[in-house]
Request: fold
Amino acid sequence: MSSSESARLRPLSSPCPTWCAGVHEPSIEANVSHRSVGITVPGVERSLAPDGDIHAIGVTEITIGLEQTRGETWVWFGSDHFARQSTVLSIETTKRVMRAVTALLDDVP
Ligand SMILES: [Zn+2]
Reply:
């Protein structure tokens, strides 16, 4: 996290964003984490075998959602087939990734 990103963190959470699918207790409002409903995208994923040599290809599901904690909104991506990994990116980073992927795919038939 850069210093400019950490400077934007606020100590208290804000009221539920319109996309929040959570039910929160008023008593824990200060520490609440707002989460959207996840959008699940089916797809195909390639990964390395444990020996790092052979590529395995299989179906997967990637779940994408929003989370807001302490007033900062993040986009999380979860894939549970191969590596059980998730990635959480800032809104700005997600938009930059989307623009970069779109530019790369413009040259793919
Ligand atoms: Zn909420």
